[in-house]
Amino acid sequence: MKTQTQSIVFILLMVFCSIQAQQIDPDIKTTAEKLESKVIEWRRDFHQNPELSNREFETAKKIAKHLKDLGMEVTENVAKTGVVGILKGRKEGKTVALRADIDALPVTERADVPFKSVVKTTFLDTEVGVSHACGHDTHISILMGVAETLAKHKDKINGTVKFIFQPAEEGPPPGEEGGAKLMIKEGVLKNPDVDAIFGLHINSGTDVGKIRYKPGGTMAAVERFVINVKGKQTHGSAPWTGVDPILISAKIIDGLQTIISRESPLVSEAAVITVGKITSGVRFNIIPESAEMIGTVRTLDPQMRSLIIRRMKEMVPSIAKAYGGEATIDFQNNTSITYNDPDLVTKMLPTIEGIAGKENVILSKATTGGEDFSYFQEVVPGFYFFLGGKSPEAKKVAAHHTPDFYIDESGLLLGVKVMSQLTLDYLNAQ
């Protein structure tokens, strides 16, 4: 009897697991799989023809044409080169937004692929190569695939889907506005009002077929700072007759690191202060009059962010004064904390696990990279996750934003399936 009971329990568990694994709508699954080769073809075209932030003119034209061909209401030139498509379902209901970033980077590609980018341009007065060294080409193609999948099955949708193709995620050129901030300013989350937003990022270090996520703070707030130090120029042989701004800069850098190592509660979240550029002087035997430092602050907790910025503002002029000089510090916010709404994550996680397999959905640590998807999440609840793009055979993996960056295209189909089903399940659970 005991053996029979155990067998029945085992069978029930197997049936339950089978049901869980089949959460994807059969029609969505079939359509997405039929589109896989087209998604890869789109990706290769975008990869071979990359465009920098706020200059994604041809990219935007291709996206807009695709959405119009699907019968959507399409708005172009949003935040300069962005494209927004609206798909209405069979019934009134909530509105969910899906976002893909579309810009490339000033990075000369070395990856040995037949669709390699050979585009060159001038960036900050320097001739550079242009490439999709962060994978935004895959994001565009995945969302175009989702758009076609859902458009073919809009009778299954209760509500509205807003497809947001966003320019300038990597940051607009100096002196220009752009990115998510400008899209929000121009009303992209209104008319109809968005109730929730989903986004994904391909990841070259995560195996194909796997998805990584984290509730709460998942990517860092990013601040750019500029420190200007004023000293007194003199001969290098007689430093006592002047005030050395290079020495003051070194003391400031050293002092800033104590904010992280001695004042920040690192058991809560990680934080980073990095000085990435120092400019000063013209000759070996002259102590210059001034120095400039440019760097970044990365934080994952709002309270730590406030503490660090406040202490930097206090410390920089004080250190300079202690050595006889003057210094100012100015901040520019590049992104906020990419904050995954915990309730939304809890609600939608079963969908992701049902499609990818629970064993392939990994709860991860936060990263100190930044994402301007965070600005959308400041307005509406959002869920941002990472999609595997690493080939199982790969022994070495090139980091994002590098010349050798490479993505295994077999991971794109999972992205189309997950984003399509997330949309359906969110809207139809009303």
Can you give keywords for this protein?
8-stranded mixed beta sheet; 430 residues; disordered N terminus; alpha/beta
Description of the molecule:
It contains 10 helices and 18 strands. With 430 residues, the protein is of the alpha/beta class. The strands form 4 sheets. The protein has an 8-stranded mixed β-sheet with strand order 1-2-6-3-7-18-8-16, with helices on both faces. Helix 4 (136-152) crosses helix 10 (412-428) and helix 6 packs antiparallel against helix 7. It is elongated, with a radius of gyration of 25 Å. Residues 1-22 have low confidence and may be disordered.
Brief rundown of the structure:
With 430 residues, the chain is of the alpha/beta class. It contains ten helices and 18 strands.
Query: How is the largest sheet built, in terms of strand order?
Result: 1-2-6-3-7-18-8-16
Ranges with pLDDT <50 over ≥5 residues?
A: 1-22
Mean pLDDT: 94
Task: Assign the structural class, choosing from mainly alpha, mainly beta, alpha/beta, alpha+beta, or little secondary structure.
Answer: alpha/beta
User: What is the N-to-C order of secondary-structure elements (H for helix, E for strand)?
Assistant: HHHEEEEEHEHEEEEHEEEHEEHEEHEH
Sheet of most strands: 8 strands, mixed
What's the number of extended β-strand segments? Answer: 18
Integer-rounded radius of gyration: 25 Å
What oligomeric state do the depicted chains represent?
single chain
Q: In what range is the share of β-strand residues?
A: 25-35%
Question: Terminal Cα separation, in Å?
Answer: 44 Å
Helix proportion range: 25-40%
What sort of overall outline do the alpha carbons produce when their principal axes are compared?
elongated
